[in-house]
Amino acid sequence: MTNNEWIYYALYLFSVLVASLSQVILKKSAMIHYESRIREYLNPYVIGAYFFFFGSSLLTTFAYRGVPLTMGPVLESTGYIYVGILGMLILKEKLSRRKIIGNVLIVGGIFVYAFI
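Structure tokens predicted for 4-amino-4-deoxy-L-arabinose-phosphoundecaprenol flippase subunit ArnE:
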């Protein structure tokens, strides 16, 4: 793999991280009680999260210039790991044994697909 290809892979992984962050922000917004239905959807958390989703989509589209289409879903699966870590850090969620085993299986699957 050349240096240019690594940049596209890193960009793709960063876009997945941004999408995962936006998911955690949306969950944080859902945990807040709002006085009206419109405020549930028009608040800084939701607007910011959808802004991040849009940016992530742009980054992913650009990253596909150097990432093969067959590798995209494999890299996208790292989002489960990011969401788990971000959920721990931002939402103070606990990692259960099942979540840890699931993430180990995801990472194992990524390595098997990418290197074998």
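The longest helix spans residues 3-30.
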